[in-house]
Amino acid sequence: MLRARGIHPANLPRLCSAPGWPAPQRPLHLFVCIADHFEPKWKNPTRQVERQRVAEWVHGYPRSIAGLCDSHGRPPQHTFFYPVDEYDPEHLDRLARLRQAGLADVEVHLHHDHDTAPALREKLEGFKHTLFHRHGLLGTNDQGDISYGFIHGNWALDNSRSDGRWCGVNDELTVLVQSGCYADFTLPSAPSPTQTATVNSIYYATDDPARPKSHDRGVAARLGQRPPPDSLLMVQGPLALDWSRRKWGVLPRLENAELHATNPPTLGRLRLWIRAGVSVLGRPDWIFIKLHTHGAQEANAAMLLGPPMRAFHEQLAAQANRNPGWRFSYVTAREMASLVHQAEADVRAAVSCNQAACPRPLDLPAHRSDFQQVLSGSRLQRAIDYGGTVRPASGGGKSLRS
User: Fold this and answer.
1) What's the CA gap between 313 and 306, in Å, rounded?
2) Disulfide check for 350: which of 16, 85, 322, 357 has CB 3.0–4.6 Å away?
C-alpha cells in the first residue's frame, strides 16, 4: 500500500517528524516559495472562464497581500509555472505585469505524452525564447543564456510512470539541462507512484538516457561542494506523515506541501514543513519550504486569495516574532535556486543565523515601505490594467542569475 502511494518503506523514519516546534533560540531562516501549476485552460473552459481565472490573480493577488511582509519587509511572492501546452499571449502579458510589479514570477510547466527528445527540445527552446523575448519573462544564467525553472505535468518527470504515459522521454533530464533549465520543482509527487526514493532533499540528478526516472536518487547539495557535471538541480518540497490528521482515525495522512482549498496552510502544517528539514547539507539553519498548488482552479484561488492564506501569512510572522532566532523570506523559484547555490558556495564554518553570519541573502528586494507605497496606491492597478511597469524604489526588478 505504501509503494502504491509512492512511499518507500525505508523512508518512513524521514517522514515521521519530531513532535513540537524547534527550540525558540535555534537560529533558523525559512525560505518560502509557492510554485503554482497555473493552468487557465484546466478542464477546457470557455475563453471567458480562462480570462476570469487570470483576472482573479492579476487583480486579486495585490489586494490579498496588501500590508503583509517577511522579515526583510518584502511581500509574499508567487511563482506561476505556466504550461507550454496552454500558451496564450494575452494571459502571459497579464501575468508579466505582476512580475514587473515585484510580486511574482513566471517559469515553465509542461504536459506531454508519447513525446520524443527532439520534439521536447523544440517545445522548450521555443517557449523559453517566447517568454523571454515577447513577454519579458525568465532570466539568464552566468553565460548569458536564457534559463528557466521547470515543473512536469502529471508528475511524470523523466518518463517516471511505469506505464510510460504523460512523458515518453527517458533522457528528459538531459534535454532540460541542455535547453537551459536551472532547476526542477516537480517533487514531491506522492501519493503518485512517480514519487522518488529521495525525499526532503535538495540534490543533483544525473541522467541515464537508457532508463527512466534517473532522478530517483542523486547527489545531495552540500556546503563547499560543486555540483556534478551535466546534472540537474532538484528542489523538493517537504513530505511527511501527519499524525494529527488521521484516516479512519488510525492512519496518518500524507503531508505533501500542496496548498488546496480543502487543506489550506496552517501553523500545524508549517511545523511539519520545518521538521522535514529540506536544506543544503552543512547549512541546517536555512530551511527551504517549497509549496505547490493549482492556483487557476476556482476553489483553490478562493483560498489562496482569501482569508485562509492571509491568516497563514499573519501567523507565520507572529511565530517568527515569538522566536528570537527565526527569520523568514518570501522568494520566487528562481531566487530559491540561487539561494541553494549561495549556500553551497558559503564555506564559512559558522552556520548560526545571526546578523554577522547570516546577512540578508542575495540581493532580495527589501524594505516594507517601498512595497507598501506601491500596494496602497493606484500605480500598481494602473500597471496591471494597462501594461505599465512598476518597480519598488530600491532593489526590485533585478534579474537574478542562477
Assistant:
1) 11
2) 357
Classify the C-alpha dihedral 258-260-266-269 as positive or negative.
negative
CA distance 122 to 117: 9
Taking the model in full, what pTM does it have?
A: 0.87
Task: Give the model confidence (pLDDT) of 137-194 as tens digits.
Answer: 999 999 999 999 999 999 999 999 999 999 999 999 999 999 999 999 999 999 999 9
> Which amino acid, one-letter code, is at 14?
R
How far is the C-alpha of 329 from the C-alpha of 71, rounded, in Å?
A: 6
Distances from the Cα of 144 to the Cα of 45, 139, 369, 400, angstroms: 38, 9, 33, 12
Pairing of strands 28-37, 326-330: parallel
Rounded to 5°, the CA angle 114-118-119 comes to 50
pLDDT in tens, 305-337: 999 999 999 999 999 999 989 999 999 999 999
In whole angstroms, what is the distance from residue 392 CA to residue 401 CA? Answer: 19
